[in-house]
Amino acid sequence: MQIDAVDQRIIALLVADARASYADIGIRVSLSAPAVKRRVDRLRAAGVIRGFTAVVDPAAVGWTTEAFVELFCAGRTTPAQIGAAARRHPEVVGAYTVSGEADALVHLRAADIAHLEAALERLRAESFVTSTRSTIVLSRLVESPGVGPSAG
C-alpha cells in the first residue's frame, strides 16, 4: 500500500487526537470530510491504522512507579512465548525482543515499589526466565504518542 504525504498527516493528526472529526482533519490537510473518511477507511482496511484509543495518564490512576526489566531466557525461548507471558501480567505496558545480552526488554508500571516488586517476582516466575536486570524510571523526559512527522 502506498502512503502519501496526506496519509502521513492524517495519521499524525489522529495520533495527536483520535477524536478529531473528519471535517477538522480535512481542514488541516485540505480535503473534504468524506475524502478524509475514505482515506482513513483505506488505512484501517490495510492495517496501517489498527484502532483508536484513549491515552491515560498513569499518574492520574495511581500507577506512578515504572521500570524497564531485561529478561534473560532459557534455551530456545521464542518471541511468541515471551509475548504470551508478558500479556499475562497487567503491569506490563510493553515487551520487546532486543539485541545485546538480554533476550527481551519489558516495561512495567505499578502503583508503588511494593507493587512493582510483586509484579517483577511474578514475571521472574515464568518458566523460561533465568534472570532479570531492572532499571527503575526516575522521571520521564520525552514521550511521543505516535510515529512519523508531527501533525504541526
From TrEMBL:
Highest taxon of source: Bacteria
Any one GO BP annotation for this protein: response to amino acid
Annotated HTH asnC-type domain residues: 3-64
InterPro entries assigned to the protein according to its UniProt record, in alphabetical order: AsnC-type_HTH_dom, Dimeric_a/b-barrel, Tscrpt_reg_AsnC-like, Tscrpt_reg_AsnC/Lrp_C, WH-like_DNA-bd_sf, WH_DNA-bd_sf
Family annotation (SMART domains): HTH_ASNC
Swiss-Prot/TrEMBL keywords: DNA-binding, Transcription, Transcription regulation
Molecular function GO labels: sequence-specific DNA binding
CC annotations in GO: cytosol
Name listed for the protein in its UniProt record: Transcriptional regulator, AsnC family
Species: Micromonospora avicenniae
